[in-house]
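call fold(seq) -> tokens
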Amino acid sequence: MARTGRPKAELILTDEERAALEGWVRRRSTPQAWALRCRIILACAEGATNKDVAARLGTTAHAVGRWRARFVLYRIAGLGDMPRSGGPRSVSDEQVAAVVTKTLETAPRNATHWSTRSMAKEMGLSQSTVSRIWRAFGLQPHRSETFKLSTDPYFVDKVHDVVGLYLDPPERALVFCVDEKSQIQALDRSQPVLPMMPGVPQRLTHDYVRAGTTTLFAALEVATGKVIGSLHRRHRAEEFNKFLVKLDKEVPAGLDIHLVLDNYATHKTPAIKKWLLAHPRFHLHFTPTGASWLNLVERWFAELTNKQIRRGVHRSVQALERDIRDWIARWNTNPRPYVWTKTADEILERLAAYLNRIPDSGD
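ret:
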């Protein structure tokens, strides 16, 4: 006889309970932990099993069973923190909710964000209490991250085009991610670099002497991770044309060449278009405007910057270019491809979810 598992307590919601739970789920300022508990109860009320609810909401069946049982016993009050051993609580649920709401929905008059000290003074609590509340709900007002949403009217089509090349490249063709790293400065420190010693990091002066700039044109082969690079002192369509000629010479004849690149004006001049017509094996795929993260060569540029350029000392442009060429040669002795894993649909679904969090996003 097949095991049916422990019988689950029947969970039936009143109209008032359902309205309250759905309201907390919809409210953007609801703490994520509380919103997840509300979603669990709503899903359980539909008759789903703990395992199904856990799979749907990205949690564990054990957690679903715990919140189901506590709701059956204590109703909505059971979704809060239960009493624990130790001294009685000195901060009420209402005070915790007030701190969370104020943190999420307001800013102090004399600053762009709350600190534990300013919030404690505002709410009449201790700094350590505010700190514990913020940690419990994952709030970090001192941190911010940057983002940029593409306004390209053909964003969806371009994402499908570029990601399709990564995940399912055409036969008898090579796919390259192409871009220019312009204005690479040859910098010499104003005083000698002090080497690292035990307990003391390497030290460099904050000021420097500029010796000139160069531009690196690079093509990252998606399949192997090898890089074809070319250095030029200027950044024009003429230099880009020379780089295309170099690609044409180095890629074996008989293979098509698909280039993923951005919408920079030098990529679309009449001279470039004329050259492409004379070389039909080249196919250009443009990333959406404001979406450089789609171009894998940007990840390689970050590698080059972190390991060669940022802490480098160069007294001339020639020395800088020599180091860049040597670094590319060493990279190509043991190249490491960057593997794209997300499908276009997964990217667009995540972007849609992100837009839902932004007021007036116009999605």
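The two ends are 53 Å apart (CA to CA).
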